[in-house]
Amino acid sequence: MTGSMRIGVVTFPGSLDDRDAARAVAIAGGEPVTLWHGQDDLHGVQAVVLPGGFSYGDYLRCGAISRFAPIMRSVVDHARHGLPVLGICNGFQILCESHLLPGALTRNASRHFVCRDQRLLIEDTTAAWTCAYQPGQQITVPLKNGEGCYVADDRTLDELEGSGRVIARYLQVNPNGSRRDIAGIRNERGNVVGLMPHPEHAVESLTGPGTDGLGFFTSVLQSLMDEARR
Amino acid sequence: MARVVVDVMLKSEILDPQGRAVQGALGRLGLAGVAQVRQGKQFVIDLEGELDDERWALLQRLAGELLSNPVIEDYRIHRVQDGA
Question: What is the spatial distance between Cα B33 and Cα B16, in angstroms, rounded to a whole number?
Fold first, then answer.
């Protein structure tokens, strides 16, 4: 391997989990690169994480204003050409608002903000961000959201399931009322992944429920290395 | 001055937990027989000068792109005479 992989982490006004996401990248063995919402320069990064938080205060709709930030023009453009992008929580909302992923995230059916260690079933391991897992593997990572209810029409849901694009489902408890227990999805190509729970908070046993989340970050490093070898 | 109003509502098939909370509160405050409450948003946009065709067309586009999300919401846009 020639030098470490540069993974960008975008900070929007109101991002909360950008530092944790950068730390997870570093623990996985990558080089985190700070990206600012107001610039359209990706600084040559090989993948991008859109972190959790409340970008632009969640005003209008979660992710609706961030979608038009200068950095997102570059992220959307490069994602369409294969750049791996992981949107976590608010990042997932931004990816849906940007139409890089289908569907939308709405207010939790319970009306409550939910914060818990969430059991997940990993279903698809072909994506750039999931290839380090085994199909059917169960993991536990923190989940914390008020608007994490994944919705899409039945045709879209059928298509996602039929093409193996549901990457993770909630186990035991559906914390937010998401259709068909969906916790995360990918695009057709597999480079863009959106996930409501927070793998970046489960990369060190001292501060998280375990290290089950690290696989998302080692996955992208692995897939970039595989890509480079080709 | 010209005024444009955009009303945004969740599509009928999308669960509206806020509306449901309001429905419960209305019942607790003595209003019997509330079958359903749906909560929406209203944007009141005041423009300097006249509303020409170009700005009207742009506003119609932005109502669907920014002010509402067509996956979960419907919108209605209309201009209000003399900005009253």
Answer: 18
